[in-house]
Design a protein that fits this description.
This protein is 42% helix and 10% strand. It is an alpha/beta fold. It has a single domain, classed as HUPs (Rossmann fold). The chain has a seven-stranded mixed beta sheet with strand order 5-6-4-1-2-3-7, with helices on both faces. The structure holds adenosine-5'-triphosphate. Keywords: ATP-binding, Nucleotide-binding, Transferase.
Length: 292
């Protein structure tokens, strides 16, 4: 079956490579795609649909949108677009927006807290849906930006895992777009006429000052020295532990190695540890919101 465009062929190849290299999608997987309605998760859902029709082994896909409860959020648009394409979609209505309003000080950047609350909801739904993998739409630029955020502001040398097993071993989070650039995801979502909608929270699209600055920096450097981004990607695949100063990586230093707990660390650059996580009540998944 031919691809719809050279762009689609290129993205499919990158996703297939990521999948093979990091064991992302495996035979008989039920992949639950976190669908925000933004360009990246739309691009992910579309390409998994394309790959699913060509893969040498069977896997199924279900999309889940976590509605934070903001009144203007266009979940109907997301649902209709999926229905039109024959994609399995579930919209989960939550009170995340309300909880955020209660927990955050007026000037805080809410995105990392919101992401943590959403992750809890996605874990629960994955169990209900019998999903073996939870796929998120983070792309190459997200990996690089997170690497630099951690380096410049977090005092750690880390990006994000392409495949993460949760602490309790019950969930596997995957990021199949790791080799796909943000620009490719945007062009693909637009070419496929997928309806891009914002989450409608008061900080929607607000990246935070540090990330914005790094985006500009990387953009400028890439223009001056094309290839910088691929070099950074290569760097996180080509780590030389003995040329770093982390004593836990030195096999002779047994004392330092004990006590190193990696935890369910997903590479988020900004700590939200100050916020205790409330238990989210479900506000309903009506039959009307669920289609197959
Ligand atoms: N409301 C949501 N419901 C389900 N999954 C979500 C939701 N919001 C985000 N996600 C998942 O988490 C990923 C990262 O979220 P983030 O808010 O950083 O979005 P993003 O980088 O702008 O991507 P997108 O363009 O998909 O919104 C998304 O790509 C998506 O897979």
């Amino acid at each position: 079956m031919p691809y719809a465009s050279p762009l689609e062929a290129r993205i499919a190849k990158k996703v297939a490579r990521a999948s093979i290299e990091h064991s992302l999608i495996e035979p008989n997987d039920r992949v639950m795609v976190g669908l925000s309605g933004g360009k990246d998760s739309w691009a992910l859902l579309q390409i998994l649909d394309v790959i699913g029709k060509r893969a040498p082994f069977p896997f199924t896909v279900v999309a889940v949108n976590v509605d934070s409860g903001y009144k203007d959020f266009k979940h109907g648009v997301i649902k209709r677009a999926c229905e039109d394409r024959g994609w399995d979609i579930r919209i989960e209505h939550t009170e995340i927006g309300e909880v955020m309003d209660d927990l955050l000080e007026a000037n805080a950047t809410p995105c990392s807290l919101c992401a943590r609350l959403r992750r809890g909801v996605l874990y629960r739904i994955a169990e209900e849906e019998g999903a073996t993998k939870i796929a998120l739409g983070h792309h190459l630029d997200d990996f690089i930006e997170t690497l630099l955020l951690n380096l410049f502001f977090g005092g750690a040398l880390k990006a994000m895992p392409a495949r993460l097993v949760s602490d309790d071993q019950r969930h596997v989070v995957i990021r199949p777009l790791v080799y796909v650039s943000e620009q490719e995801a945007l062009e693909y979502a637009m070419a496929c006429e997928l309806p891009i909608v914002g989450c409608c929270c008061p900080a929607c699209g607000d990246l935070g000052l540090q990330r914005q600055r790094l985006k500009r920096l990387i953009g400028d450097l890439e223009r001056e020295h094309p290839g910088i981004k691929s070099s950074m990607l290569k760097a996180i695949q080509n780590v030389h532990p003995r040329h770093l100063l982390d004593r836990r990586l030195n096999p002779l230093d047994v004392m330092a190695r004990t006590g190193h707990v990696d935890g369910d660390d997903d590479g988020e650059a900004v700590s939200t540890a100050a916020h205790p996580l409330p238990v989210l009540r479900r506000t309903g998944t009506s039959g009307a919101d669920r289609v197959s």
